[in-house]
Predict the structure.
Amino acid sequence: MKNMTLENIAAACGGQIYYMREDLAQETAKGVVIDSRQIEPGYIFVATKGERVDGHRFIPDVFAKGALAVICEVLPEEDLGPCILVEDSFMALKQAAAFYRQQLNIRVVGITGSVGKTSTKEFIAAVLAEKYKVHKTAGNYNNEVGLPLTIFGIQDDDQIAVLEMGINTFGEMHRLSEVARPDICVMTNIGQCHLENLIDRDGILRAKSEIFDFMNPEGTVIVNGDDDKLATIHDVYGKAPITFGMNKDNAIWADHIENRGLLGSRADIHMGDVLVHANIPLPGEHMIYNAMAAAAVGVQFDMTKEEITAGISHVEAVAGRSHLIEAGDKVVIDDCYNANPVSMKAAIDLLATAPGRKVAILGDMFELGENERAMHREVGQYAAEKGIDLILCVGGLSSEMYEGAAEKGGEARHFEIREALEAVLQDLLQPGDTVLVKASHSMAFENIVQNIQENE
C-alpha cells in the first residue's frame, strides 16, 4: 500500500506510536482490517469498540498472526508490537483511508441516491471493466466504516474505483466525500428514505449533495434528469450536470423499450450522435436508468459504444437486489436487502410482469418518519391495484400494508413476526409461483428466501 508506513499513518490519524521497532519504521502495510479473523502478515488491525465486541480484546491474537501494527484507543499493557494510539478508532479508520486515497493514481466514481445505488454500481463497474481494471464496493460497504475498508482494498494496478456511498443523516456524506474524493459523482434519484433524520425529500437532496464537497472541481456530475429534485441541480463548480432519463431533453435518453419481463429488457440509448442498442439482462424499468447512468460514465472514460454495449449485457444481479433465483418449481425475486416506498413499488412492478401466480412477501420499511403508517398502507394498495395474487405482510408496521391491500380487494394476510409466516409458508405457496421477497434489511428476510429454497 503506497506510502502507508506507520509514521505516515500515525500522522494522518493524529496518533502516537508506541512500542515501535526500528526495523519496521519503513515497512508499508499490506492491508487494513477491523476484523481480527481477516488479519494476514503485514496487515494493520484497527481495534474498534462495537456494540457487542471490543476489538481491543483481539490485539494479542492479531500480533500472533503477524500483524504489522495496531491502531487502538487503549494500549495493551505489554509490548506485543507497534501500536498507534488514537482518541477514536473509527475516526482514525476514515483518516487513514483518506490519506491512502490521496496516494493513489486512480479515478473514482462515487454513486449515491435513495434507491438503486448498488445496481447502478454494478452496471457502471461492468461497463468500465470492458476496458479498465476496476475496484468496486463489495456487499453493503458503503457507510463510514465500509467505504474506508473498500478504499483500503484498492490495489496499485487498479485504474478506476467505483464506490457506493450511503447515508442516513446530515453531514455523513460530507465525511464520505472527504475520504473518497470522487472525480465523477452519479446521483440515481431522491426518494423517501431516512426521513426520520432528513425530514423530507428536499432534506435528502441537501444531504446527498454533500458528495460535491470534496469532489474533483474539474470532475463531472451525472444525475437522473427525470427526477424532479435532481433536475434542480444546474451548476456544480461552474459546470452543468450531465443528465440521463427517458425524457428526450436529457443528454442521454432511451426509447424503443422492449419489456421482456423477468428476462430484462432491450432499449436504444441515445448519447448525442451515438446510439447504443442495449440488451439489459436484469428486469425492471429502473434497470434501464441504471444502464443509462453506466453509459454516461463510460463516455466520460472514452469508451466505445461497442464496449458500453458489451458491459451492459454482462452485468449480473447481486443477492438481495432483484436477484432471480430458481427454487424448484418456483421463481424467487430476492430483493430483501432493503426497502422504501419507491423501491417497493418498483419491485411490485417487476413482479407484475411475471407469468403465472404472483406472490408478494412484504415487510416493514424503517426510518420513514411520521408518515410511515400511511406509506405502508399505500404500498399495500399499490400491490393490490397491480393485480398481485397473494400479498403476505410481515411486521408491526405492515399491518397497515395489509389493510391497504384489503381495501383495494387484494387477497392478503398479515403476520406480526417473520417466524409466524415461515411456519405456514409452504402451505401458502403453489407450484409455478413467482415470489417477491422484500423488506428493510433488519427484518432478516433472507431467511425467507432460504426457507423457500430449502423446501424445494
Remarks:
- The chain has a mean pLDDT of 92.
- The chain has three domains: 6-95, 104-313, 323-454.
